[in-house]
Structure formats: C-alpha cells, structure tokens
Amino acid sequence: MTKVEVTREGGHIVSLKADGHTGYGVEGEDIVCAALSSIIQTALLGLMQVAGIPVEFSRNDGDGYIEFTVPTLSSDKRHDADMILDTMMLGIADLYETYSDFIELKF
Fold first, then answer.
1. For residue 71, what are the contacts with CB-CB under 8 A and spacing of at least 6?
2. pLDDT in tens, 44-102
3. Yes or no: is domain 2-106 CATH 3.30.70.1490?
4. Pair 47, 81: CB distance under 8 Å
C-alpha cells in the first residue's frame, strides 16, 4: 500500500510525502503505482520547471518514496503552485476513489 500524506497550511498544499508501492500488480507492471507516481512527479516537475519554484524534494524509486516541500512564496508564485498542486490532488483523489485498497490518503 502507498501512504500519501498531504500537509496544508492556510488552505495551501505545502508538502507531500508518498511512501511504499501500492501492491496492485507485480513490480514493473503495477498500473496504480505508476499512475500515482506519474501524477505526483508531473506536479513536482510543473512546480520546478513551469512555475520556476525551487522545491526541496527527495526520492527513492526502489522504495517507492517521494517527498517534497514548497517554500514560502510570493502571491503570484503561490497562485501558480496552487493551480498545479490542486490539479495534482484531483488526480490523486480520483485514483484513490477507485483504488482505496491500495492507497492510503491522509491530510
């Protein structure tokens, strides 16, 4: 099971930690794990490369671990981060709705 923990402050997502493989399928063929990973990593890339936000992150693919923290931002950058992170949460929530036996979601 993948445990996803999202931290909000003042209504804004400020960090995310995802740990573990979902166990939906065999390693390398697990579509739920791949989908969840893609959603999170695409959001992280969007923050850094599209919005230009210097996000601190760590990742260990073998363990199925990724964690990132969004720094304090100006209102313009916070708006950009919110758009990306709220979209990420829509994807995670949709995946969780169908595969809650394999994903634990905490706020």
1. 53, 54, 55, 56
2. 999 999 999 999 999 998 899 999 999 999 999 999 999 999 999 999 999 999 999 99
3. yes
4. yes
